[in-house]
Structures are given as structure tokens and as C-alpha cells.
Amino acid sequence: MKKSRNLFVRAAMNILTSGDVTLFELGQRSRVIFLNAVTIAGAVMISLFAVIGFLSGNVPLGLACAVAALIVSINFLSIRLFRRYMLGGIVDCLVIFIFYYYLVLSGGEAGSGVLWINTYPLITLFLLGSVAGSVVALTFGVAVAVAVFVPALNAAAFSPLYSARVIGTYFFIWLFSFIYEVVRKLTLSRLEDSNSRLAKTSDALQAEKKQTDDILSGVQEGIFLLNRDYCLGDVHSAYLSGIFEQEDLPGSSLLDLLRSHLPEQDLTATADFLEMLFGSTVNSELLREINPLSEIRCTYSGEGGLVRGKMLRFTFARINAPDSPYPVLGVVSDVTSEYELKQQLTVEERKHKQSMENLFRIIHVDPLMMREFISDTEAELEHANTLMKTEGVPGEEILATLGTSSHAIKGNALLLGLDEFASKVHAYEDSIKEIRTKGHSWRDLLALTVGLGDIRTDLEELNTLISRIEKFQLNTAARASGANSLLQLSLDKFIRKESERLELPVHLQFQSDEDALLSDEYRKLVKDVLVQLVRNSFAHGIEAAERRQAKGKNPEASISIRLENNDDELLIHYRDDGAGLDLAGIRRRAAQLPLLAERAAGLNEAELVRLIFMPGFSTAVNAGMEAGRGEGMALVRSRVQEAGGKLALKNNPGQYLEWTIRLPGTGSSAAAIA
Amino acid sequence: MTILVVDDSRIMRNIIKNTLTGNSRYAHAQYLESPDGREAQRIISSQKIDLLLLDWNMPMLNGLELVKKLRADPLYAKLPIIMITSESAKYSVIEAVKAGVNDYLIKPVSEKLLMEKLERLGF
Fold it and tell me: Are the beta carbons of A285 and B120 separated by less than 8 Å?
């Protein structure tokens, strides 16, 4: 039903628009519809008049009407065929002119013919336009006036007064039609004007929007607006989604977006800051200075549940438009790589500082000692590395070895004044200690392997430096003096340095038997052990000068070392005249350890002394460079035991601490021959 | 112009005062000193002060508490206050600004920054 009606409507429209689908302009389209409607209506009506004429016996009228109907019908067809709408309009107007004039002249039924003329101005104006239409209608009006005022032509025999009314009405209609047409045209042209203006503005707006869109999609920064609830506006740069790692940002609160990625304290600060930003009491410059998001580390979860850190830099600006719904503009950029670069630079600077320091030390230290340090350290590293690579070695053992090895390396580095190197190893020790306390995983061990590699790299750098320096340095004195004096030299240097650093005056007495020559194997062992003993003396034994004086001791403490070859044995005597072992302190510390707490009070002196060899046991509160890790004494014991040696300790509280270390004779070259 | 310098360290007070008197703009100002917040409060209530330079960590009454007390009193709501402190954490700065300080300086005091901040406040 609906379909057939649609079909009917479409057919009717097709007829009325002459099947012209190019008629888009509304004025032209309605003109054509009107033209066709008038033509069809005219053809039908004139045909009707023809029929009436013939039926009433008025043959001339019937004939005239038939001809007119034919002309109008042909006009309808030609309009459809040629689409010369103006021509069709002219033909229509001409036919209607003649037809209406005939109706006036003939008088029509009871003088009604003249009534038709009032439609003529409308038809001409619409079909021919305001100028031609009004001229034709005016001409027609004049012609009608002639017909109705000249009695011979006035077939209906209207009185002159009626004729005047007819003509008056006609010109009235003509005038109003004319005015209407003019106004319509003016309105139309104005409408067109404003339409084209609108189109232009819209084009400009489109172009502007395109530019804004391009900026927002291309800019490598997150740009957004904030309303008074700290919620993001509808428009933001595409980059912002990447920064927050979230789609659908408009309407989300900035605080919510940051919530799970910032520490609570920073979030509170941000909330306070935003409150001030949207308020008016704090000036913009100060706000910029106190912006807590000016460089902020945000954490995001990455692949496999790993946490990823991102450095973000936010800047905010108040928008100076009163009552703006979004009074703050925010810009955020991801400065992670910039930050990393900065950090890398710091590392590089530190490295540079280290090489400078190394260079300085190498120049001041005997190259032989440096070489010795390097080969010793390499040996330690190699030992640790082999252990790590060996399958089946328990992690705890690896960690223990790494602990003692790095401790020894650190001691030796300090001995030569390689502070940067030592502090690096110190940091490495820290991580070992941390892993040992919290329990280790394979990943931790891997990290330690990498750390070991870093130390090795530094060492190689040192080696290169030394090779360069050696070329320039004369070192005859040290070369002649051999291993023992080298040992004495380095210990003396170390003691002087520590003595200066800790402000504890200490004097070294070093004695060595002529034949107590150290084999390569023992040279390192003896040095490692002595270094640890010296460090222990500084950290725990030697009192401050005032205190020593108060006790009636020489304000300058003394450390004496004696190496002896005795019946296939290498004897090492070490003694410092410090305060001796702090047995009360050891007991106190023991009481704090979960395993010993209960027995601590009942431990006898020998048992307390044994505690100092326990790895990780220390009475120092904070681990510093000089002491505190509790590794030193453990190192001494393990090294001596590994070599099959024995260790004895004599503690005279308040007076001295004496160590005697016996090493089997294989280490000495003399014994090796025997 | 009367400037009240509040800091528990006499040395710090002198540094601030000398920094200011070294500049011709502030050389002829009248300087008052106080080693703690409570005495500062007493001075402020007994005479007219144009500018308050305030430390944070002080005995008796700390700087932040003094700012809060002053801002709660309509009489001192507009008194220009610059906090000069070693509290450098982001949230400390924000806490102080929130409490109502007009500006904030982190020790050690840079002469250039202090002058900038004073100028910004219209001194």
C-alpha cells in the first residue's frame, strides 16, 4: 500500500519536474513544478472549455479552445523534452494571455470570464520573473482595461464603476504580487548570501579544526584541559593515551589516573597542589616552582608482572578566561630517556673521576704494588667465577665466597687508596649482604655475576692505565726490595692513610726474617690476612689519642708485625696495643641474635672470642668502609684454614690484642726446597 | 620597613640579615630577630611588621605552626611571609604554601633567589 503510494508520488513528481533530476536548487525546482502544474491544468481546463464550447453549439469557441489546448499540450511535451523552462513559461503566459483575454472579451458565463484575470500576475511573475512578469501582467491589465471600458468590446456590459473595480482589483493584485516577488527575490538573495557566508565560515572552521586535530594527533606531548573537579576535557592530544596507558580519558580525574602509579605521599601533595592551582591565592610563578609533578617517577606494570618506571614531567598553566569550564591547561611529556641519559652521564662522570683517581694513585703508588693488586683481585674474581659456574654448589656457599672475596678486594683497594674502586666493591658487598638476608633466587645470583663482571671491567681499565704509566715510571727501588718490603710498604701506606682518615695516630713496626721469603702462594694470603687485621685494629681496638693518654698509654698507638720462618712453618705475629676485644660488646651483640640470645649470658671468654669469626657477626652498628660487615675475621679464619694453618689469639683487655698465625712450610720457598 | 627574621640559629639569622643589608634596597630597613616562633608571635602582636622571614624547624613553636596561627587571624592574613628552611621535600614545600606562606626558599640561601622572591612580593 505504502509502496504503491510512494510509486504514485514518485510518478507525479517525475511528471511535475519534467523528469529532470538535476534540479537541486529549490527556487528553480519549484518554478518547474509550478510551470508543469500550470501547463497541465491549463491543458485540461482549456480542453474542458473546448468540449463545453462544442456542446453548447459555440463552434468558434470550441475550436479556439481546442487549438489552445493543443498548443499547451505540445508545450508540456516540449518542456519535458527540451527542458527549456523559460521558453515553456513564455509559451504558457502567451496562451493564458490570449485565453484569459478571450474570456474577458466573451464575457463568459454571467460575466464570470473577467474573474480569471486576477490569477495572471501571479502566473507571469512566477514563470517569467519579477521584471518580465510584471511588464507582461501590466500589459495584460491595460489590455483588459481597454476591453472593459470600451463599450463595444465589453461583452458582459459591465457598468463603468464595476469595470473600474475589476481593474482596480487586478492592479492591486498585480502590485502586491510584484512587491511579494521583489521581497521574495531579495530575501532569497540575502539567504543565499548568508548561506555562502556560512559555508565559507564552516570551511574555515573545518580547516582550523583540521589543523587543531593534526596538532593534537601529531604532537609528542600529552596536552589536556582540566575542569574544577580535576577531570580531563573532551579534547586532548593522542599522545596522552600513551602516557597514561589508557584509552577513553575524557572525564577521568587526573588524580585517579595517577593514583595507582604514584606513592601516597606524592599523590597527597598533588591533590594539595591542584587545589592551589584552581584557587587564586598562590601566584603562578610560585606554583610552577612547587609543582610536585614537575619531574615524577610513575610505576606501571609491564610484561610478566614486572614493574616499569616512567619519568613524567607535568606543567600546568591557568587559562586566563573568566568562567572557563576548563580553567587549567596541562602538558605532560615522558622524559624517561632524558632522565636515563642524565643518569648515564652521572655514571660516566663517576667513571671518569675513577680513572682520574686511578691515574693519580698509580703515579703515587709503586706499579709493582698495583700489579700485585690486580693479579690478586683477578685471582679472587676468578675463584668466585669458577665457583658460580660449578654446578651443584649451594647458593649459600657461593654467596659466602663472594662475600669474603669482595671484602678482600675492597681491603686491598683501600690499601692502595683506590677509594672509588673500593666504594664500588663496597656497594657490591651491600647487595650480597642484602641477598643473603632476604634469601636468594637464581635471578639474584645472575645479578651478582653481572656485578662481578663490572668489577672486572674496572680492573681491566686499571690494568691498561698501569701499563701506560709503567712506561714512564722509574721503579728501581721497589723492584730491588722484593716482596716483603713491598708488603711492608703497602701496609705502612695503608696504616698512614687510615690513621689520617680516622684521626687515630698509629705507628707500624714491621719485622721480617731474612729468610721469611714469601712464596707467591703465601704472599697474597699473608697480605689479605694482615690487611684485615689492620682494619680490625682500627675499627675495634685502637682508642682515640685522648683516651689512650687518660689510660696512661702512648697517645700514638702501635701495630707490630713480625714474620718468622720457624721449623717448616711461617709464623705471623700481629699485635696492636689497643683496647683489646670488647667482650661485653660481643656478648651484647650475641644477645641480639636469634640463635644465640638464650645462651649469650652464659658464654665464656673463649666462646665469645670464637664468635668474632662467625661470618656476618659484627659489633659495629653501621657498616662503614672500615668495618661493620663482620666479614673480616671470618675471612682471616677461612683463609688460614684453607691453607692448613692455625690461628691463635691473645686478648689482654685494655692493653693489647695479639694474633699468632702458623702456616705450614710449603708456602715458604725455603721449605719448598726442603 | 620592618623585617622580622626568625631562625633558631644565630648564624643563620646573621647570614639572612647581612644578605639583605648588603643590598641597597634593604640596607635601611629595620631588622628584628627572634630565635623561636613563640617570641616571633609576641613581637608581631606588639608592633607592625612588614615582612616575616621564617625558619621551619624551631623550638617552642615551629615556623609552620606560626604561619597557621597568623593566617587564622584576619589581622595577619596578608602579612608577607617567606619561609627559609632546609625542608626541601616536595610535600614539605606544598604543605608550607598550603599553610599560607607567600614564598619558599631552601637553605643554603642564595642571595639572587632571595632578592628575586622579595621583588616578586613587591619589596
Answer: yes
Domain, as residue range, for A562:
483-672
To test the contact with chain A by mutation, choose from B85, B92, B97, B113 the residue with the greatest count of A C-beta atoms within 10 A, namely B97
A633 and A662 belong to one structural domain = yes
Is the pLDDT score of A484 beyond 70? no
End-to-end CA distance of chain A: 128
Answer yes or no: pTM beyond 0.90.
no
Cell of A165: 473595480
Largest CA distance in chain B: 36
Query: CB–CB of A138/A124 below 8 Å?
Result: no
pLDDT digits (tens, 9 = 90+) for A419-433: 888 888 988 888 888
Q: How many CA atoms are closer than 13 Å to the CA of A250, on its beta-carbon side?
A: 7
Helix or strand holding residue A484 (H, E): helix A476-502
Taking the CA atoms of residue A442, residue A448, residue A452 and residue A458 in that order, the dihedral angle to the nearest 10 degrees is 140
Do the Cβ atoms of A601 and A591 come closer than 8 Å?
A: yes
Residue A212 φ then ψ, to 5° = -60, -45
Rounded Cα distance between A335 and A293, Å, is: 12
Q: The C-alpha cell of A135 is what?
A: 511588464
Q: At what angle do helices A85-106 and A130-149 cross, to 10 degrees?
A: 10
Question: Is A272 in Cβ contact with B95 (below 8 Å)?
Answer: yes
Count of domains in chain A?
4
Which amino acid does the sequence have at A655?
A: Q
- Are A24 and A67 in the same domain? yes
pLDDT tens track for A485-520: 778 888 888 888 888 888 888 988 888 776 555 666
Q: Closest Cα of chain B to A656: distance in Å?
A: 45
DSSP letters spanning A53-113: HHHTT-HHHHHHHHHHHHHHHHHHHHHHHH--HHHHHHHHHHHHHHHHHHHHHH--GGGGG
- Nearest residue in chain A measured CA to CA from B117: A286
Q: Which amino acid is at A534?
A: V
Query: What is the spatial distance between Cα A424 and Cα A625, in angstroms, rounded to a whole number?
Result: 11
**Is B115 near chain A, with CB under 8 Å?**
no
- Whether A331 and A365 map to the same domain: the answer is no
